[in-house]
Amino acid sequence: MTRKRIAIFSFATLFCIAAAYLAYQKFEKYLPTPTNALAFPPKLSDLQIQKIRTETPIDSIQVHKAERYLELKHQDQVIRRYPMRLGFQPLGHKVQEGDGKTPEGTYHIDWRNPQSSFYKSLHISYPNAADKQKAKNLGVSAGGDIMIHGSATSLQMKAAPQLMTYFPQKDWTWGCIAVRNIDMDEIWQLVNNDTAIHIHP
Fold this sequence. Notes:
By secondary structure, the protein is α+β, with helices and mostly antiparallel strands. The protein has 2 domains: 1-30; 33-200, Beta Barrel (L,D-transpeptidase catalytic domain-like). The protein has 6 helices and 8 strands; from the N terminus they run H-H-H-E-E-E-E-E-H-E-H-E-H-E. The chain has helices spanning 3-27, 34-39, 46-55, 129-138, 154-159, 181-190, and strands at 60-64, 69-74, 77-83, 105-116, 119-124, 147-149, 177-178, 196-200. The longest helix has 25 residues, at 3-27.
């Protein structure tokens, strides 16, 4: 192999390595991690879902931001627990639009969207009166459209249905709570509108 060919080959190799590294940096947050995979609950059957709705209906959602999991509860009993992702600035209560924070406090599920950009979504009743007043005092908008939703978009799902179990490695939303699409299916069926949601720091 001539020096020229060696130089071209070396350059091409370095280019491929650099391109692969940049691609990894861009998409790393979408790769599942082993620790998260261990926490994923087994999928419920239709019969199991119906049994929960009949015998232990969900009366509250508990969101634990620091631990990154969401619980569905019947009274004091934890019925289901799901790993989740938060806004890209997860520490602290949401104050204004665009701050990337997930709200903290007590709200409720007030409506739902079966055709959400992120598969399906349940709307959280942020901002409440106190949130609006605080934002007004600061001269900013409190923001809104805080949802529990899936992680793969509807367009992605059409191209790759296996993304039902896709789970980003890092917090990435604008303040919403994101779960796997397969888990969103269960939450959608188990949680009624007007269910209380308690979001803990």
